[in-house]
Write a structure and sequence with these properties.
Layout: E1 4-10, H1 17-25, E2 32-38, H2 45-55, E3 60-64, H3 71-81, E4 86-89, E5 95-96, H4 100-110, E6 116-118, E7 121-125, E8 128-132, H5 143-146, E9 157-159, H6 160-165, H7 179-189, E10 194-196, E11 202-205, H8 208-211, H9 216-232, H10 241-255, H11 258-274
Parallel strand pairs: 1-2, 1-4, 2-3, 6-10, 7-11
Antiparallel strand pairs: 4-9, 5-11, 6-9, 7-8
Helix pairs in contact: 7-9, 9-10
């Protein structure tokens, strides 16, 4: 049984998938299994994943959905076959830096009081690295109000028993693109705690294609997740106003020109750096 199971839902990422998988194959920590689940890709994503699985059958397990089911369902399929003590996330268009798994596993080994560990992310596009995230070191429930998500999802590592205790990812279409935020609410409501390392150990591809994921529907999903989460935390009703402030803020972002959005995004990262 491996120490770490890495779960990766993949969808239409044929161009970036080899770099993502290679970043796992070159980790300094070697006691892992990689579980890939193709979510009905229309390009050659599954074919590329199959080539890697055939080259490394002892390390890589490949699943496939008959049709596109969404990331929450896809990650749950991976969780069903995961056997590691810890479960790490990974996306098909990103890069894990070489010591990521080693340092995250070492932290969980040394700190049984935490069920979640994550790291800041370095943002990059076709021109190179351009910024990084600055998550709060040790989030509390109150931090969910203004600083959600409290952990970066893609570089996180979670104790498998904690995943199972909350039933994995909620399979609700209203959770799509925000299944990670819902997961944090469920884990913290159950009494689990998380920690964000200071060192960035993960690179997230954040380019024009990534920015195109913004939509009013996705923000409506975010509002639904926040409302459910506030209820789980038994927050007083007056705090629910933050949900609609967040919705209005992101609606404005969704209709602004792309170049202005990117500029504001970068400035937001700089303000968080100074916090």
């Amino acid at each position: 049984m491996p120490k770490i199971s890495i779960i990766m839902g993949i969808y239409n990422c044929a161009e970036t998938l080899p770099e993502a998988i290679d970043s796992i194959l070159t980790q300094t920590f070697s006691d892992w299994q990689l579980i890939l689940c193709d979510d009905g890709s229309k390009d050659n994503t599954y074919g590329i994943a199959k080539e890697y699985q055939e080259r490394f059958p002892e390390k890589i397990l490949l699943l496939q959905n008959e049709q596109n089911m969404g990331l929450n369902h896809t990650l749950n399929r991976c969780l069903q076959v995961a056997s590691g003590e810890y479960v790490a996330r990974m996306d098909g268009d990103d890069i894990s830096l070489p010591t990521r798994l080693e340092k995250e596993a070492a932290f969980l080994d040394a700190h049984p009081e935490y069920a979640i560990v994550s790291t800041p992310m370095i943002f990059f596009d076709e021109h190179g690295d351009w910024g990084r995230s600055y998550p709060i070191e040790e989030p509390t429930k109150r931090d969910f109000i203004k600083h959600s998500p409290v952990h970066c999802h893609a570089p996180c590592m979670i104790r498998r028993e904690a995943y199972l205790a909350v039933g994995g990812y909620t399979e609700d279409r209203r959770m799509l693109r925000f299944e990670d935020v819902n997961l944090w609410y469920k884990l913290y409501a159950k009494g689990y705690a998380g920690y964000n390392l200071d060192e960035p150990l993960y690179k997230m591809r954040d380019d024009h294609a990534a920015a195109s994921r913004r939509s009013l529907k996705s923000r409506m999903n975010a509002a639904h997740v926040m409302r459910d989460g506030f209820s789980l935390f038994h927050f007083p009703r007056y705090l629910y106003g933050y949900i609609y402030i967040d919705l209005a803020k992101h609606f404005v972002k969704s209709i602004m020109p792309e170049k202005l959005y990117v500029l504001l995004h970068k400035r937001s990262m700089e303000r968080k750096k100074q916090r």
